[in-house]
Design brief:
Layout lengths: L2 E6 L3 H16 L3 E3 L8 E6 L4 H17 L4 E6 H14 L3 E3 L7 H6 L16 E5 L1 E2 L10 H5 L3 E2 L2 H13 L4 E5 L13 H9 L6 E4 L8 H9 L7 E3 L7 H7 L5 H14 L4 E8 L6 H12 L5 E6 L17 H29 L2 E9 L5 E5 L4 E4 L12 E10 L2 E4 L5
Parallel strand pairs: 1-2, 1-3, 3-4, 4-5, 6-9, 9-10, 11-12, 12-13, 16-18
Antiparallel strand pairs: 7-8, 14-15, 14-17, 15-16, 17-18
Helix pairs in contact: 2-3, 8-10, 11-12
């Protein structure tokens, strides 16, 4: 049996698509290896080009892999290939590069077999299944290359999504994560994202439904209202912020103001007081001065964020921001990034302390075990958790356990089921 292993860069959408690529290889009798360092017949690097550093990392991994395994097939697929196909091939010495339209036909193309478009269930090596509901984006934020790599928004039929999630339930998955390039834009014959979740809630074997990030100005209030009244919909909202300054938001071509963002977060906190709250932030967009950065810092400091992703601005050829005046020096962007990361860690600790003080239970999906036999997983609010191994308590992978938060340690909730 031939073997294949994958290295995925970038977003949850890429992860969901990797699972489908794995399924395609599995259908052609390949063994899927979980360790990219293992000896394999085929190495697939699923690329990202959202930042220059992301694309550079993909190139480095591909070049290194080909050097270490000269007799194996090295393949690059995805967004970076879509943008820089010839350049990527030349830089890496890869055997194949496949763009977005080709990457699901890799086994056939590699082996020159007849193409067969029969649908297969994505194959995951984790206990959570990622469900791609749509692709593409037409927001054209000034810093973002995604609309150029993934095209206009296009949604999967709702019936197809439901059938796929039912199949995941039959396979034993307890949790699914809805993902896409811009999931708030989902639309299928009048059905919106909220309708997708409502239909998935009806699937008995699926116990938790989670969404990836959702853009403001799409369907966020409907989503919050549904989340507040649902037993399966995980209480975690990831609203990309990018900046807390109105001038920078305008320069970014974002679809909301600082005030509108704050209003939406306040609405969510009113409906779901202990909701997990995440955000993406970019520092150093051209024109970001000290006052603009302070406005971002101030906004973040005003809310109980539990998960903050901070990135320095990275110039992407082909985007509007690449040609903007007043480019911010890289050292200043990095300093601001570190400052916000430190703030994010402080907010995460405050969020954990609030949970401990509240005395509320959390639910954790056990995904793996550490060397001491403790269960490791995620709460419904998307906080990392460690469930302590206790006498008389049986912990099993892919089960959901409920318990009180004992403490917060090493950026994880610690739960002792043996203590009442």
């Amino acid at each position: 049996m031939k073997t294949v292993t994958f290295k995925t860069f970038g977003c949850r959408l890429n992860q969901a698509e990797t699972a489908l690529m794995q399924a395609k290889f599995k259908a052609f009798n390949y063994e899927i290896l979980n360790d990219f360092r293992a000896d394999a017949d085929v190495y697939v690097i699923h690329t990202c080009t959202i930042t220059g550093n992301a694309e550079k990392s993909c190139v480095q991994v591909a070049r290194s892999t080909k050097r270490k395994h000269p007799n194996s097939i090295v393949v690059l697929a995805g967004c970076a290939v879509e943008v820089n196909r010839d350049e990527i091939l030349e830089k890496t010495g890869a055997d194949f590069v496949f763009d977005q339209s080709e990457k699901y036909m890799m086994p056939q193309l590699i082996e020159s077999l007849p193409l067969n478009e029969n649908r297969v269930l994505p194959y995951f090596l984790s206990t959570r299944a990622l469900v791609k509901v749509q692709d593409g984006c037409n927001f054209f934020c000034s810093y973002c290359i995604v609309p150029y790599t993934r095209g206009k928004p296009k949604s999967r039929p709702l019936t197809e999504i439901v059938d796929e999630v039912k199949a995941f339930g039959d396979k034993g998955y307890k949790e699914v994560v809805i993902t896409g390039a811009n999931i708030g834009c989902y639309s299928d014959e009048g059905k919106k994202l909220v309708n997708v979740i409502e239909e998935l809630e009806k699937i008995e074997l699926i116990k938790r439904i989670r969404i990836s990030s959702i853009e403001l100005s799409t369907t966020e209030k409907d989503i919050i209202d549904l989340m507040a009244n649902s037993e399966k919909f995980c209480n975690y909202l990831h609203f990309p912020l990018q900046s807390g300054d109105n001038d920078i938001l305008k320069a970014m071509h974002r679809h909301y103001t600082r005030e509108e963002y704050c209003e939406m977060v306040e609405y969510a906190l009113k409906k779901i007081p202990m909701v997990g709250l995440g955000a993406d932030v970019i520092t150093g967009l051209p024109g970001e001065d000290k006052n603009a950065f302070f406005n971002t810092y101030d906004l973040i400091n005003s809310f109980p964020f539990s998960n903050l992703h901070v990135f320095p601005y990275s110039k992407r050829k082909g985007t509007k921001a690449a040609d903007m005046p007043n480019q911010v020096p890289g050292n200043i962007s990095k300093e601001r990034t570190l400052e916000l990361i430190e703030l994010g860690e402080k907010k995460q600790l405050q969020y954990a302390d609030n949970w401990i003080d509240s005395g509320r239970d959390v639910e954790v999906l056990i995904e793996e075990f550490d060397k001491d036999g403790n269960g490791i997983g995620w709460t419904g609010e998307y906080s990392k958790a460690k469930v302590l191994k206790s006498p008389g308590v049986l912990l099993e992978k892919n089960t959901i356990v409920k318990g009180n938060v004992d403490k917060f340690e090493d950026s994880r909730f610690v739960i002792n089921l043996g203590v009442k």
